[in-house]
């Protein structure tokens, strides 16, 4: 893209950004080695590492791939990128992923909309009425929470359902070439992860 041609950053990447990228690569590598996840928290950590790495990938930006076009909609054909969402391959957990944003503008509850949703990878053992309700109030609370760079993820539990909301932050100075209203560290989207036990397949008839 023209915005990036000849762009040179005279600032070295912050140690925080380098650390986050190293953790993401490590988590994804460990996920590839293990059979499955023991806890829903582990599933979310692995999925978030995957998606955050997609948004931080400057090569995708240089190729003209922006926003939700950076994330997969399934693991079919050309939609798969860098091994795919590790939560989608889980045999023990049903997972869904949603992204809420303001079309690349400053993150505000009033203009927040659902920009992406990855469908479940199976049938949950939990009844639909037992899932926590994620409404506008919850999302507005998350937007307010993540205005602080020190904020921890927003966690919601109900019975066997684990929900976690994490921010997508502008992690590199190059991001500001398009997000000129922002500064490094500002949130630009919310990632919503929902994890529940997968319904076991029925055994053979007697």
Which features does this protein show?
206 residues; alpha+beta; 4 helices; 24% helix; 19% strand; disordered N terminus
Description:
Helix 1 crosses helix 2. The radius of gyration is 18 Å and the shape is globular. It contains four helices and five strands; from the N terminus they run αααββαβββ. The chain has one domain (2-197). Strands 2-1-5-4-3 form a five-stranded antiparallel sheet, with helices on both faces. The chain is α+β, with helices and mostly antiparallel strands and 206 residues long.
Q: Briefly, what is this?
A:
By secondary structure, the chain is an alpha+beta fold. The chain has helices spanning 15-33, 40-55, 58-62, 136-145; strands at residues 93-101, 113-118, 154-158, 161-169, 187-197. The chain has a five-stranded antiparallel β-sheet, sandwiched between helices.
Largest sheet: 5 strands, antiparallel
Oligomerization: single chain
What helical percentage do the residues reach? 10-25%
Task: Assess the beta-strand content as a share of residues.
Answer: 15-25%
Low-confidence stretches: 1-13, 29-33, 74-82
The neighbouring-strand order within the major sheet is 2-1-5-4-3
Gross morphology is globular
The whole-angstrom Rg is 18 Å
Order of helices and strands: HHHEEHEEE
Question: What secondary-structure arrangement, pairings included, does this model have?
Answer:
Blueprint (H helix, E strand, L loop, with lengths): L14 H19 L6 H16 L2 H5 L30 E9 L11 E6 L17 H10 L8 E5 L2 E9 L17 E11 L9
Antiparallel strand pairs: 1-2, 1-5, 3-4, 4-5
Helix pairs in contact: 1-2
